[in-house]
Structures are given as structure tokens and as C-alpha cells.
Amino acid sequence: MPGRVMLIGGNEFGRESTPLLSRLLRAAGPDAPRVTVLPTAADNPRKAARQAVGALNALGAKAAPVMIADATIASDPAASAALESTQIVYLTDGNPLALVEALKGTETLARLQHAWANGVMLAASGAGAMALCDYYWDSGLWEKALGVLKRMVVLPHHEMIAGRFNAVRLRTGLPAEYILLGIDEQTAALISGQEVEVLGAGDVTVYRADSEQAYTGGQTFELDVVPG
Questions:
Q1: Does 56 map to a domain?
Q2: SS3 for 213?
Q3: What is the pTM of this model?
Q4: CA-to-CA distance for 77 and 39, rounded, in angstroms?
Q5: What's the CATH code of the domain at 33?
Q6: 70-81 residue pLDDT tens
Q7: Burial (Cβ within 10 Å: 0-12, 13-18, ≥19) of residue 218
């Protein structure tokens, strides 16, 4: 069955986000988990990889990056071999379009989906979280994403967007059955099947076609569908 998913609203390496990363590692099991970091979305992937690996290893993980810069590299089976022996795949923040263009239709994406379907945990921040879904938000429009997580979409850095767009505007262009998760920075939604646990300093706001509800750290709620 699919592994758990942690979707983070951004700024996950700030001091207040340390409990989020600790919870991520605990969710993978009692031992030091192996984490494969994909910094493909980042403007500076090497810097993002160093930051992610440093933060995760400081908390007891065995993290290492896989440097996949474009679709050519992502299509090389050797480039993504580490996904077959990891416990967590971690996608960094950055530009969702860069991640979609690099991974769409590649061996790397196929291996990521296969790993998750067989219990590997997915963790993604900001742009990484958006790109995993069917659609990602781009300057007020919903664009096609990677489609790993079905029937749901994510708006990271939500507190910066919610003051500018109401619920109707945010959902414009989405199918009625889709759930929109607005995730604040330094906040995460930990998904296990249909159950979602909210972690961190901010809120996760759930936008459905006919309702809007915010949940704070420690609260849980149910998704209407299994995202896999």
C-alpha cells in the first residue's frame, strides 16, 4: 500500500520547523531512516541539497541528494537508482514548473511512484508539494502537474496568498470534487490514507467546493478520497 505523505508549506528549515522534520523521520520508523533528497525544483539545487541533507542528518537521518537537473538525466535509469533503496523521498521547494518539466514521463517519476506505492514515504515542501498533485498554482491559474497525488491540490505559503484571493477565486479552474489544501509556512499535513494530521506553527486550510475549514497543529481531519 502507498506510504505516508508529508506536505510542507515552506520554510521547513527555519528553527520552528525542526519538530516537523523530526516527526517526518519518526514516521519512517524507529531507526535512522535513509532519505533521498531531490532538489530539482530549487533555483540553486546544490545549495538546496546541502541545506536539506544537513538539516535531516543533524536529526539522525542518513540523507543524500540525487542531482537530477533535467528530463535527460531523469530518464537515465542510473540517475534514480537510489529511489529503490530509500525510506523517504524528499522534494525541496523552488519552482514547480521546473520540477514538472524535469520529471514528467521519466524513469525517475516512474520509480518515485513505484517506491511510494510500495510503502516509501514522500515528503515535499512548497513547489515540491504542488508538483506532486494533479495541478499546481501558477500566478492565479491551475496548470497540469505530475499527478502522483490524485484529486487534491496544494497551496503552500498559504498565509501569503489567502489575503489576496477568496475561496471561490482559489478554486477557479479546479474540478468540483478536488480538495485544496492551503498550508502555511513551517506547517505540514501528514497524510496516512485518508487521515490528515496537522503539524507545526500555522494552519492547514481545507477548501472544498462548498466549505472552508482551518485546522491547527495537533488537529486531524479526513480527506474525501485516498490521494493515491
A1: yes
A2: strand
A3: 0.95
A4: 18
A5: 3.40.50.880
A6: 999 999 999 999
A7: exposed
